[in-house]
Amino acid sequence: MMISLFVYLIIGLLVLTKGSEWFVRSSAMIAHLTGLPRLMMGAILIGLATNLPEFAVSISAAWKGHGGIALANPVGSNIVNTGLIFGICLVRSRMVLDPKCLPIHGIPMLLAALLTYVLILAGSLTWIGGGTLLFACVLYVFWSFLSGKQDSPAEQLLEEVGENRWESTLSRRNLQWTASICLAIMGITCVILGSRWVLSTAVALARILELSESVIALTFIAAGTSLPELATVLAAGSRNHHDTSVGIIFGSNIYNMLGVIGISGLIGRLPVETANRLFDFPVMMLILFIPFVPLLMNRMPGRKTGWTLLTIYTIYTYSLFTIYKVFES
Predict the structure, then answer these.
(1) What is the C-alpha to C-alpha distance for residues 323 and 318, in angstroms, rounded to an integer?
(2) Checking DSSP bridges between strand 270-271 and strand 124-125, what pairing results, if any?
(3) Residue 319's pLDDT is what?
(4) DSSP state of 271
(5) What is the distance between the alpha carbons of residues 55 and 264, in angstroms, rounded to a whole number?
(6) What would the CATH number be for the domain defined by 2-328?
(7) What residues form DSSP beta bridges with 125?
(8) Contact by Cβ (8 Å): 106, 250
(9) DSSP assignment of 143-205, as one string?
(10) CB atoms < 10 A from the CB of 213, how many?
(11) From residue 225, how far is each of 122, 132, 174, 187, 283 by CA, in Å?
(12) What is the DSSP code (8-state) at residue 219?
């Protein structure tokens, strides 16, 4: 029974991830056909391309009354993005970064983390807190658009999602429209079905393993919904777009906190467990801050920073299955 549930969870995550990829590609092409500015496309797609699985799962969870999953999923995703994915990137190869890259993307991320943490300290996130986060998300998108440049991560992300491939393979405009709409329908269908599948399987797993729903969301679901970030970052890294990798990871973290948690809070009240306040959020904020420690010494993050992130992520994940119940009690 348990093995079959894990298989169902993996299948659901794959369907969700593939549907997200199709929907993002179709959105990029539709935006291109309608003549939207590339910078505006990038500012929106940089969040949509990597955070659609988190949006789908958390919104579905909030709608069905599983507030623990709705909150833990984006928090766990941020920990995976920075602790695991960014850690792997730093260990895997020497990242040559623009000295301004980390502060430009990192300061908004740290501010978003601080705002989110302050709002959840009350013990729950209501529609007021959700609305505040969502308003901050809109401001961030607007700021990204105004401060965008032609070589920005948002701009380069359009290459990663394959806009140029569409232009070279589909020459007739009516064929482009038809293909884009069909792909969008298939994508959103897979996203909806995949998110429901993931949610129901996660709830069943939590009951069988006698774990809280938050633990399942912080580990298995978070790792699965972070697959788009991993794929996009690896694609950017293979082209030596290291600044793009940082922008994608940090941008995804911002959308998780402001967008995913914000919309989930608007849909339904999100209960904040003691473990979330005393363990999960502090660990997330620590991991988000670690890449900036070398900057305080006029250095750039390297392999030591990467190993530090991976070590903390490993210890945190192990703690979820061992001592986490101490924080839950």
Answers:
(1) 9
(2) antiparallel
(3) 93
(4) E
(5) 8
(6) 1.20.1420.30
(7) 270
(8) yes
(9) HHHHT--TTSHHHHHHHHTTHHHHHHH--SHHHHHHHHHHHHHHHHHHHHHHHHHHHHHHHHH
(10) 23
(11) 28, 24, 33, 15, 19
(12) I
> What pLDDT, in 10s, does the model give residues 65-81?
999 999 999 999 999 99
What is the rounded distance in angstroms from the CA atom of residue 49 to the CA atom of residue 229? 8
CA angle centred on 329, ends 277 and 211, rounded to 5°: 90
Distance CA(31)–CA(42), nearest Å, equals 10
Q: How far apart are alpha carbons 89 and 70 in whole angstroms?
A: 28
Strands of the chain (E only): list them.
124-125, 270-271
Both ends of the chain: CA-CA distance in Å? 28
Q: For residue 271, what are the β-bridge partners?
A: 124
Question: Please, which residues have CB within 8 angstroms of residue 262's CB and are 6 or more apart in sequence?
Answer: 130, 131, 132, 133, 134, 135, 136, 137
pTM of the predicted model as reported, rounded to 2 decimal places: 0.83
How long a stretch of residues is the chain? Answer: 329
- Rounded Cα distance between 54 and 32, Å, is 25
Closest CA to 54 of 12, 17, 22: 17
- pLDDT tens for 146-173 read 765 444 555 555 555 555 454 444 456 6
Rounded to an integer, the average pLDDT of 85-90 is 89
Extract the tokens encoding 283: 């660990």
CA gap 295, 210 in Å, rounded: 43
Q: Which amino acid is at 87?
A: G
Read off the amino acid at residue 40.
Answer: M
* Residue indicated by tokens 């959308």: 255
Per DSSP, 290 falls in state: G
